[in-house]
Design the sequence.
């Protein structure tokens, strides 16, 4: 593990992206998403994804300069063609437009298609809630989850994020509708550790605890039939709003070669006023103070643990696996990058 | 069980409500909600709730004539004071306004406070989706659910409904974020049947399988920590938008004497177009055709079972428990009702 100062890591990521042709401002936005995920202990959405972004640019399936083209389909509905842009670049540009619009209309939505992976949703929710608005964020993914009672992966991991203004910090939910992530399956496979029964099916659709077999199979929805129903609802909701690909037709968030055809939806709303904010904050404090089942494990409000992790990481430095960091250092080195480009 | 023609049941319910002072149109709307729940096999949201509505009117905590007062807080944000009106009356009035508005703005929201229990959310989702729009519906409830790892009921059962246009019928999700309903706990207590471990806590916050003890305790969120996080997110989202009561301060959906202070939120959106609709419908058919784990149990799409139940009930008649039906017949009988009123 390499322990890195935030600024050092940030500079290297930005340089690596710039060398791949990403304009500085866009490189900053993409790096921000990666590093905020690292800070919060979410390495699956962190800098390990940077080399794939560079590969996707080289392969022409990500446009490093695009910021997306928005069309107001109504006063409060922004239809966004992401123009194959980097996910966070397109997403933040759309979000800024609907956040401004919601201030006068009360609510506004951005339906985004044709942009790359937008990263950890929590960051969008937190940024909007910090400025006093509510965010609902949805995005689809490759089909990795089996329907409840089905034998085949047909539903995305379809995360949902909800940010609500509160003190001392916003309420931030960010969760996938799968029971576990495909990253956890790969991690178990790499460590040759067995899976918990019920987590996954193999390629034949049979239950398995063999992580290697599960990589080609399907992971379970969280929460049984209800979690399946919710994940499916988000799949059709996003597809219906964005006209994006759906189910097993979704591509481009896990590979380096295919155009990313999933959809993203942001809804920004204006809260009722300061009285509601005070009451939400007091309620969340009461939840934190709820007598715990296990005296050693206090009740947690979504977003709290991520903030603690973030503060700890900022103080102690980022822990990034050596191999992951080495790849970024190489991509950030002009001579390596140029010689690589010449080979291609 | 009384097997009833739909029209006969409807006429009796409407008459019972009219005798309680409900204008005919409002009585029709409230009856519609009750009977559609019965048709779909959801008696917990059916006519057994009618006597409580009448009681609430007599107690002055429900206004039978009110339809709610909407104020546009922005072009797309309808702030609704429900004026203590009947839930479905206020809800459908608000929904009609935002559905019309969303046709030009693309999205519109109604944030409703101060109205009574709005009933089965599925019906709102289905009606909107049948007309080609998308609905997200949220409502809070009395705190019946314990936080994950907590010992006390502090979160509502907070259901979410999502309706999306599709053929041959709309996609309709309608689910509570609790693992089971308090109705199921009461049902087990009445039958002296033990609960499944993990369903509930007793009044001391200890896990119990004694249904009678669980009635004064708390029920579990569905899906462990994720379901808890989602239910909590919906609680703060609704409270933040409606400035309604929150957590243990919520009253009036289970009792007959207190003003109902929960909140309801409807968001109506315009789908992308007919291509998206075709792709959603094809995807849902593929889900239905997914090879099942158990050959005898095909994979189900949310809303399908309810539609099958509805068609069966319309053909065979409604099955309503004798006691429940008897109460309605009495309330629908002018002489009984008048003599009762004279006693009060």
Sequence:
């Amino acid at each position: 593990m390499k322990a890195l100062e935030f600024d050092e890591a940030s500079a290297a990521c930005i340089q690596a992206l710039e060398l791949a042709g990403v304009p500085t401002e866009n490189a900053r936005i993409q790096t921000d998403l990666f590093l905020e995920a690292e800070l919060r202990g979410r390495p699956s959405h962190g800098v390990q994804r940077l080399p794939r972004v560079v590969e996707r640019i080289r392969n022409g399936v990500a446009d490093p300069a695009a910021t997306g083209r928005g069309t107001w389909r109504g006063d409060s509905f922004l239809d966004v063609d992401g123009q194959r842009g980097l996910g966070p670049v397109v997403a933040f540009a759309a979000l800024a437009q609907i956040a401004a619009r919601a201030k006068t209309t009360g609510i506004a939505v951005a339906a985004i298609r044709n942009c790359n992976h937008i990263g950890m949703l929590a960051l969008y929710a937190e940024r909007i809630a910090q400025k006093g608005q509510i965010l609902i964020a949805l995005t689809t993914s490759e089909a990795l989850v089996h329907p409840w009672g089905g034998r085949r992966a047909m539903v995305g991991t379809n995360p949902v994020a909800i940010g609500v203004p509160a003190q001392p910090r916003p309420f931030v939910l960010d969760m996938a509708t799968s029971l576990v992530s495909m990253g956890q399956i790969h991690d178990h496979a790499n460590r040759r550790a067995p899976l918990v029964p019920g987590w996954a099916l193999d390629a034949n659709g049979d239950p398995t605890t063999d992580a290697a077999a599960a990589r080609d199979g399907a992971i379970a929805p969280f929460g049984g039939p209800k979690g399946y129903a919710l994940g499916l609802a988000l799949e059709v909701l996003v597809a219906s709003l964005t006209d994006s690909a759906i189910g097993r037709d979704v591509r481009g968030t896990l590979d380096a070669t295919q155009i990313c055809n999933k959809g993203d939806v942001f809804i920004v709303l204006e809260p009722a006023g300061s009285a509601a904010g005070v009451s939400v904050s007091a309620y969340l404090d009461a939840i934190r103070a709820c007598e715990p089942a296990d005296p050693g494990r206090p009740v947690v409000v979504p977003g709290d643990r991520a903030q603690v992790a973030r503060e700890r990481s900022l103080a102690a430095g980022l822990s990034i696996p050596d191999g992951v960091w080495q790849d970024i250092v190489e991509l950030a080195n002009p001579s390596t990058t140029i010689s690589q480009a010449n080979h291609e």
